[in-house]
Amino acid sequence: MTGFPTLYTKRLRLRELTKSDAPALLAIHGDADAMKWFGTDPMTHIEQAEQLVEVFNSWRAAANPGIRWGMEELASGQLIGTCGFFKWNRSWRSCSIGFELAQAAQRNGFMREALVSCIDWGITHMELNRIEALVHPENTRSLHLLERTGFVREGVLRKAGYWGHAYHDLVQCSLLREDAIYLS
């Protein structure tokens, strides 16, 4: 991928993350309650957030690339979360999707708005046919969000995740190109 695509929705600007986003990312990723389903332990230092910006930005040059957008609320100019693709398999035209949102921004429809935009971009520019998501079975809000966005539950991957010193089952969900025509 060359250049970073900036996407706009009615209320959001999806843009490249910068080092200046580290404090907002620390606030999001440092919230133990918000991160209990994310698949990593909560952050405790600004250096971890700075490193996360570098990791997300390095995905574009990876062997199986990805792209992670910072979600900036247009009204406030604040970074409220991130979303994007990773593990892009060009041959299979598939990838995984991930996202997180600050607790204060939840329950406002921001994440669905962002996901619809990035899914449309992925289908158009990455020629994706399949997008996968792995979600903890108790993360009902993310499961419902994915289902409202057209994803279908396919099954449970037993003890596929490990964080917080414990193994976790994960629900496998997917969205196919043919399912996404109804998103807009």
**What is the percent of helical residues?**
25-40%
Distance between the termini: 25 Å
Structural class: alpha+beta
Q: Report the portion of residues in β strands.
A: 25-35%
Rg (C-alpha, Å): 15 Å
- The CATH architecture of the domain at 7-129 would be 3-Layer(aba) Sandwich
Oligomeric composition of the shown chains: single chain
Helix-strand blueprint:
Elements: E1 7-8, E2 12-15, H1 22-29, H2 32-35, H3 46-58, E3 67-73, E4 79-89, E5 94-101, H4 110-125, E6 130-135, H5 140-148, E7 152-163, E8 166-176, H6 177-180
Parallel strand pairs: 5-6
Antiparallel strand pairs: 1-2, 2-3, 3-4, 4-5, 6-8, 7-8
Helix pairs in contact: 1-3
Describe the structure.
This protein has 184 residues and is an alpha+beta fold. The protein has helices at 22-29, 32-35, 46-58, 110-125, 140-148, 177-180, and strands at 7-8, 12-15, 67-73, 79-89, 94-101, 130-135, 152-163, 166-176. It has an 8-stranded mixed beta sheet, sandwiched between helices. Helix 1 (22-29) crosses helix 3. The two termini are 25 Å apart.
